[in-house]
Fold this sequence. Notes:
Strand 1, helix 1 (19-33) and strand 2 (37-42) form a beta-alpha-beta unit. This protein is an alpha/beta fold. The longest helix has 28 residues, at 164-191. The protein has helices at residues 19-33, 43-46, 65-75, 93-100, 123-135, 164-191, and strands at residues 5-10, 37-42, 79-87, 90-91, 110-116, 139-140, 145-147. The chain has a single domain, classed as 3-Layer(aba) Sandwich (Rossmann fold). The structure holds flavin mononucleotide. Residues 12, 14, 17-19, 85-89, 117-118, 120 line the site of flavin mononucleotide. Flavin mononucleotide binds at residues 12, 14, 17-19, 85-89, 117-118, 120.
Amino acid sequence: MTAPVLQIIIGSTRPGRVGPKIAAWFTAQAELHGGFTVELVDLADMALPLFDEPNHPRMGQYTHEHTKKWAATIDRADALVFVIPEYNHSVNGATKNAIDFLYNEWQHKPVAFVSYGGIAAGIRAVQALKPVVAALKMVPIVDAVTIPMFFQFLTEDGSFVPDEATNAAAQATLTELARWTPALKAMRSSES
Length: 192
Ligand SMILES: Cc1cc2nc3c(=O)[nH]c(=O)nc-3n(C[C@H](O)[C@H](O)[C@H](O)COP(=O)(O)O)c2cc1C
């Protein structure tokens, strides 16, 4: 049996962003964990404009190629991890916009968060995003990776190498996600 698909979504899209470095580290943690087929999804590659579909996403009547590609991507996922920065004490616009594009593709999937920022570690972005994912019937798990002062873990060659406590938080989050994933997958198949 193939392992469930875990998508690690890079929420930041700006030039010079740190998000891909943190997502690369978390991807390595997910490979080490071994419970998933790991897929890295970069919102910058999806190149989504500001939400431009005429119909409510619930109807699944997508008119634009960028939406169809984004929907097909998320449809493959059995579990999701958003790697997100905190912008102005909340979630960044690109992440919220990308979430708003879809509906059924998100439903009944477990979701975890890796957040980063200054002293608040991006926690306010996670707290802002939780009601959004709940509205789409995703199931946010309690375990999370919160990275304060992320720049302390950037090495001279530009990679992200955190401390052991952060690695342990990643493994604990992946283990909890792996517990929810088959339960929710069974629930989704009983619906279709
Ligand atoms: C528009 C903007 C708003 C920001 N607001 C916050 C904030 O509220 N809290 C925080 O900890 N860092 C904030 N920062 C600093 C970010 O933590 C830092 O720029 C980080 O690199 C952003 O992630 P990214 O590089 O992946 O986009 C902000 C950065 C930007 C660009």
